[in-house]
């Protein structure tokens, strides 16, 4: 590694598989879906989702004023605290002016909006919480993390729909390369499984209607996939330059060698049918990383379980990586975490690089016959993963690719 390379020194996650990286990794390696009936969605055409277990996530952090934080912010804070601890860093001792925070979020505090609208219409203006605005703003995940950790460097909310978490990681790398920070906590978060948001996606034709089998509803790259399953969650990565990591005696879990971004400029919600924008992002990330496409051993795919999106991405993978690297999608197990997805999948990609294990794609026996990709199914695959790519795409035509290599 060169002295200026950006490395991942810590990871944290809160997902429907459980609280913490260990629970999340175990869940995706088990290869079983986490979708269940959601009481909050009872009576709707789609009444199931993938939720993080427990309503009191974050209660054990010892953070003051946790009451004012909406669920998406609490999830992000739990993931960030885990990542910082995993990196072996102590916020009480660092120089906060050189610590940045960037967190992706697609929607913000939808639960708070729903509850306060209910209070307004049912009880009147005096019952609306004065904390509504800071609870709902998408940037408050980054703001509350910075406040809790004493991070006084740049902070930002990355909002690129379902690519938001990956956009945050790419932005963090830029800050480190440009010398704006010495440490960046980067990630993504989302908790938007409210009746209105779920109905909005359902009306757009994006969600699975497989209500008779919620656990098996999310089927990335499958011939019979019929849409994604809404999920919530959060993940965080601590990024540093390798020279700073070595100076403090830290451990590199993986190198974030390159990032690529592009925009389809094709349609507000549909991907380019040939995945040309996605391909541009992947090729740009490979170029920045200084690796050839044939060097890539693994692709952690965006693959949401929509036929249109999965087909476009699958054909892009075939085109860019004709040698057939292993492919997986965590969304079979975890559902689609929207703004959190790119960060969750970045963490999983880091673990695959570090451990030489690729988790299976849940609920899928084989990819659709028209896709010639080496999809990992049924059980984890153990093999060295020296170079891996994580793809993320979002409404608006946003494309982000991250390249991780062994540290």
Please explain how this structure is put together:
The chain has 407 residues and is of the alpha/beta class. The protein folds into two domains: 6-247, 3-Layer(aba) Sandwich (Peroxisomal Thiolase, Chain A, domain 1); 258-405, 3-Layer(aba) Sandwich (Peroxisomal Thiolase, Chain A, domain 1), CATH 3.40.47. The protein contains twelve helices and 16 strands. Strands 1, 2, 5, 6, 7, 8, 9, 10, 11, 13, 15 and 16 form a twelve-stranded mixed sheet that branches. A hairpin with a 2-residue loop joins strand 1 (6-15) and strand 2 (18-19).
In short:
The protein has helices at 21-30, 71-86, 110-123, 132-136, 140-149, 164-177, 195-203, 242-247, 276-289, 307-320, 331-334, 341-355; strands spanning 6-15, 18-19, 36-37, 48-49, 99-104, 155-158, 183-190, 233-241, 254-263, 298-300, 326-328, 357-358, 374-375, 381-382, 387-394, 398-405. The protein has 407 residues and is of the alpha/beta class.
Could you name the CATH class of the largest domain?
Alpha Beta
The number of distinct structural domains comes to 2
Oligomer, anyone?
single chain
CATH topology of the largest domain: Peroxisomal Thiolase, Chain A, domain 1
What's the helix-strand series? EEHEEHEHHHEHEHEHEHEHEHHEEEEE
CATH architecture of the largest domain: 3-Layer(aba) Sandwich
- What characterizes the major β-sheet? 12 strands, mixed
Number of helices: 12
Structural class of the secondary elements?
A: alpha/beta
Shape: globular
Helix content: 25-40%
What's the β-strand tally? 16
Radius of gyration: 20 Å
- Which runs of at least 5 residues are low in confidence (pLDDT < 50)? none
- The overall pLDDT, averaged over residues, is 95
């Amino acid at each position: 590694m060169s002295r200026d390379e950006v490395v991942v020194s810590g990871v944290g996650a809160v997902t429907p598989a459980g609280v913490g990286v260990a629970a999340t990794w175990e869940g995706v390696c088990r290869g079983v879906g986490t979708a269940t009936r959601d009481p909050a969605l009872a009576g709707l055409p789609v009444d199931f989702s993938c939720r993080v277990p427990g309503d009191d996530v974050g209660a054990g952090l010892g953070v003051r004023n946790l009451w004012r934080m909406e669920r998406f912010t609490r999830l992000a804070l739990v993931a960030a605290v885990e990542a910082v601890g995993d990196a072996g860093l102590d916020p009480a001792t660092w120089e906060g002016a050189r610590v940045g925070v960037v967190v992706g979020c697609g929607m913000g505090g939808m639960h708070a909006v729903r509850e306060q609208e209910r209070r307004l219409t049912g009880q009147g203006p005096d019952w609306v919480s004065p904390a509504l605005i800071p609870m709902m703003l998408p940037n408050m995940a980054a703001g509350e993390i910075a406040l809790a950790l004493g991070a006084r460097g740049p902070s930002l909310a990355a909002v690129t729909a379902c690519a938001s978490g990956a956009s945050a990681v790419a932005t963090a790398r830029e800050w480190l390369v440009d010398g704006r920070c010495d440490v960046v906590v980067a990630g993504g978060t989302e908790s938007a499984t409210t009746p209105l948001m779920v109905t909005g996606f359902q009306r757009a034709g994006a969600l699975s209607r497989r209500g008779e089998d919620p656990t098996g509803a999310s089927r990335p790259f499958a011939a019979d996939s019929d849409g994604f399953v809404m999920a919530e969650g959060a993940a965080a990565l601590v990024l540093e330059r390798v020279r700073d990591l070595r100076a403090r005696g830290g451990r590199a879990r993986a190198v974030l060698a390159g990032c690529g971004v592009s925009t389809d400029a094709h349609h507000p919600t549909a991907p380019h049918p040939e995945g040309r924008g996605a391909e541009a992002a992947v090729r740009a990330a490979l170029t920045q990383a200084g690796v050839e496409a044939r060097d890539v051993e693994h692709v952690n795919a965006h693959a949401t379980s929509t036929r249109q999106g999965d087909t476009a991405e699958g054909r892009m993978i075939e085109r860019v990586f004709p040698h057939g690297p292993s492919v997986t999608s965590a969304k079979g197990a975890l559902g689609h975490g929207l703004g959190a997805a790119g960060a969750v999948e970045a963490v999983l990609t880091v673990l695959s690089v570090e451990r030489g294990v690729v988790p299976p794609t849940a609920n899928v026996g084989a990819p659709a016959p028209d896709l010639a990709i080496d999809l990992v199914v049924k059980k984890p695959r153990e093999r060295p993963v020296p170079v891996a790519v994580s793809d993320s795409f979002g409404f608006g035509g946003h494309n982000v690719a991250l390249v991780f290599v062994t540290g």
